[in-house]
């Protein structure tokens, strides 16, 4: 299940790289400015907001554990259909519609996927499991642009939108075959035999829950509210960097689109290290301790993007960023599963919907305006300031891990 959910996150990551990676080509085809391109990217996050909230709640309503598999399959099915629809789009209007639908699928799949792995591993090692599974994001951030660069080299940006989402079909089949009641019972039996704590009781997995009750649980929890604010700011910075990195490398550095696409995903080379390390460390030294170090690394890395003026400096700075880029998310996911076990997917859907959806919708046109009006340096300074602000809600989090020395 860890392998399958990691591949699922890998697919989500690659899907989210599609538009930013080929954005220069789309801008050329449709004669778009930086601000217009930013708004096009924002449409994906409108769908993310809807999808994360909708599928997150549905995953809790129809049951926990193995029963979440079908909700995840439905969300990925939406993303696959949107990719194919984008391929056949010939007008800006149709492209915009399919971007929203793609966001519904990718936004809906993530909270369900995280909840699945959180409920197939013992509580004692939850941070490790979520962290390892989340290595799919940095791997996708590197592998996605490489695949897209290869496709662009022999075809057009449209082919990337049809071939990449189809990778989800075998993952969907694997999820259905492995995520069964029988396999879950085997896992829980092993957990009990080794004197550890099962994530949920089996008789809880079959109940249909009241969606309004689930949202009330999520909305009333302090850690959920603080996490939404904190992750919003981290994602504001991430989207501001990632959306225009290929444009930075082509326009400011002078690289080809294919080469810029590969370098833009360099953070994925080291991202898996940060995911596994910080998730595991948070199991032992606490979620807040890990988040403070990650926040500092984020701030310095985003500021360092100011100095990307060659292929070599691009590789170096983005590889350093990879040690921190995706790390806040698995640690925060583990925190939310700890905090709201009865509404885990709803809480994560709320965080992803508001934090990712709202930040992604707003930051692209804002960053595009900063670049167009004041230049790249001003843009990275604005994004780094968002990382500094993230320490405020971070301080309000209530620790969920009891350290062994306490």
Describe this structure in words.
By secondary structure, the protein is mainly α. It has one domain (2-197, 206-394): MFS general substrate transporter like domains (Growth Hormone, Chain: A, Up-down Bundle), CATH 1.20.1250. The chain is built from 19 helices and no strands. The chain has helices at 2-30, 34-61, 68-87, 92-118, 126-133, 136-154, 157-163, 168-178, 181-193, 211-219, 222-252, 257-264, 268-285, 287-304, 311-322, 328-339, 344-373, 376-389, 391-395. Helix 5 runs antiparallel to helix 13 and helix 10 (211-219) packs across helix 17. The longest helix is centred in the middle third of the chain and has 31 residues, at 222-252. The two termini are 33 Å apart. The mean pLDDT is 87.
């Amino acid at each position: 299940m860890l392998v399958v959910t990691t591949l699922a996150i890998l697919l989500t990551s690659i899907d989210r790289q599609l538009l930013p990676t080929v954005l220069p080509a789309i801008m050329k085809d449709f004669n778009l400015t930086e601000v217009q391109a930013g708004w096009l990217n924002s449409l994906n996050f409108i769908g993310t907001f809807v999808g994360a909230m909708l599928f997150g709640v549905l995953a809790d309503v129809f049951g926990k554990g193995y029963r979440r598999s079908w909700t995840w399959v439905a969300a990925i099915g939406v993303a696959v259909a949107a990719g194919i629809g984008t391929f056949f789009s010939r007008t800006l209007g149709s492209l915009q519609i399919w971007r929203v639908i793609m966001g519904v699928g990718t936004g809906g799949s993530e909270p369900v996927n995280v909840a699945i792995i959180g409920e197939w591993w013992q509580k004692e090692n939850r941070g490790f499991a979520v962290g390892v599974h989340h290595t799919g994001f940095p791997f996708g951030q590197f592998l996605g642009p490489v695949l897209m660069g290869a496709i662009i080299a022999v075809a057009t940006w449209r082919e990337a939108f049809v071939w990449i989402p189809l990778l989800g079909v075998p993952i969907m089949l694997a999820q259905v075959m492995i995520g069964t009641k029988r396999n879950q019972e085997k896992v829980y039996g092993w957990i009990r035999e080794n004197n550890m704590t099962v994530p949920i009781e089996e008789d809880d997995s079959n109940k249909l829950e009241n969606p309004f009750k689930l949202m009330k649980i999520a909305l009333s929890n302090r850690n959920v509210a603080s996490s939404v604010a904190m992750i919003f700011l981290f994602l504001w910075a991430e989207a501001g960097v990632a959306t225009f990195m290929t444009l930075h490398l082509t326009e400011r550095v002078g690289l080809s689109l294919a080469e810029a696409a590969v370098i833009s995903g360099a953070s994925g080379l080291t991202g898996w290290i940060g995911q596994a390390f910080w998730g595991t460390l948070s199991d032992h030294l606490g979620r807040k301790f890990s988040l403070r170090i990650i926040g500092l690394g984020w701030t310095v890395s985003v500021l360092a993007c100011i100095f990307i003026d060659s292929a070599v400096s691009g590789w170096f700075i983005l590889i350093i960023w990879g040690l921190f880029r995706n790390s806040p998310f698995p640690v925060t996911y583990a925190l939310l599963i700890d905090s709201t076990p009865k509404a885990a997917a709803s809480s994560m859907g709320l965080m992803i919907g508001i934090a990712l959806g709202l930040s992604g919708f707003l930051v692209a046109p804002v960053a595009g305006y900063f670049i167009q009006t004041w230049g790249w340096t001003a843009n990275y300074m604005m994004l780094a300031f968002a990382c500094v602000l993230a320490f405020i809600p971070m301080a309000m989090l209530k620790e969920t891990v009891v350290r062994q020395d306490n």
